[in-house]
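Help! Submission page says 'invalid entity' but I think these are all valid:
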Amino acid sequence: MSQEYDLVILGGGTGGYVAAIRASQLGLKTAIVEKGKLGGTCLHKGCIPSKALLRSAEVYATAKHSEDFGVITSEVSYNFGKVQDRKNKIIDTLHKGVQHLMKQGKIDVYEGLGRILGPSIFSPMPGTISVEMNNGEENEMLIPKNVVVATGSRPRTLPGLDIDGEFVLTSDEALELETLPASIIIVGGGVIGIEWASMLSDFGVEVTVIEYADRIIPTEDHEISREMQRLMKKKGIKLVTGAKVLPETLVKGEGVTISAEVKAGLKEFKAEKLLVSVGRQANVGGIGLENTEIQVEKGFIVTNKFYQTKESHIYAIGDVIGGLQLAHVASHEGIIAVEHIAGKDPSVLDYNLVSRCIYSNPEVSSVGITEEQASDKGHKVKVGKFSFRAIGKALVFGESDGFVKIVADEETNDILGVHMIGPHVTDMITEAGLAMVLDATPWEIAHTIHPHPTLSEAIGEAALAVDGRAIHS
Ligand code: FAD
């Protein structure tokens, strides 16, 4: 069967399904091809399930210390099956929501594996999509005027470190665990590794993180990394940095043992399971790119600022193009691509103004550049910092670790970056993002009234601190 469309989107993850909704709003006849489930990695294997588990872990950890709040409980325990049921229910609710949005937008959803064909009887240009239907029915042939490739990414592993789903896991398998191990080695101390370390540790698992760089969350500001390192250690997490894991030393049996090269030589680590979190690779294979002129560099599809590939009617967005592999980036790129297809003149995305969040306990969030990057770029830097220890609401919450740090240019007063670690900072970073979008100065942030008592007072005080005017320091 063949069908004509204005737009066919390959992949129904956050990037793909949001692009489809925008396309339908703009009056484009649109179809999505999804081989798995609408919602993609974010909904089924990423943002949502990991945050649901993190929340259960946080509730458990807080309940264990309920006496600090004057609340007396009997012995606190958890039922991991119920933790998983809760996670699955949240996914299910949101999945139904996305399915409903597709129906509402009259977007055709083809459940199957899509592949781009070269020039054919259907079209003189590459871009016809053949769909091998999941239900075994005859292949569908979709003939679009435009295509958006949004095939996402999958976990990367280290060469020689095979994922067996029993001893050696990625986040995909870890999310499906029926019971938690007593101990785990996490290879990689980036965003995903630290979220897992924090959550498993809060559930009482003995966690060792092995990181190749000389600090965990190495893309964050140095001071944020250092504070995170201190707080993870305070939880009892073992952190081994500047360490190169040697996959060939992996032995599986009762559990796993693996060695890493550390400063002092070779060091052996033992645990029940090993989680590999060393980044994600783009899904560029098996989707027919060889039938097109589309360029792939370092494993990612190359596009221009409107996300057009070398084939100007084929766009690519989200994790498959690399850069910041985040759900809110994928969806924003999708909207820009579709508006461009519809002949609008969308504003391009300024990646420097994208907020980045880590949902560990405590949380981390940032926007703009770090203090080191600012100095490297030649800015004369001034910094304002304010600790949550002096914030009433943080004390009320019983979560007063961490701080807000604002990096500004001494001469122009421009805000160059805002970095936070502490309670609920992922919900507070958008104020900083908005300030940067509007080119606000630290003075303007400070002049904005931050209600008392709120955690956001730390942002107001940090803004005052840039000019040495913080009140409560
Ligand atoms: P995906 O969501 O990966 O969607 C791609 C879709 O394409 C998939 O559904 C796939 O089945 C489908 N597909 C692939 N090939 C084909 C084909 N040939 N035919 C048909 N369909 C195909 N980001 C955040 O912003 N916040 C977070 O808190 C966060 N937490 C994360 C936690 C974890 C553990 C992980 C792994 C990721 C997390 N991310 C988070 C990243 C986020 O999930 C991704 O950036 C986002 O999902 C990218 O969206 P996408 O649409 O590009 O790709």
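Support: the input was valid. A stray whitespace character was the problem, and the output above is from the cleaned input. Residues 365 and 429 are 6 Å apart (CA to CA).
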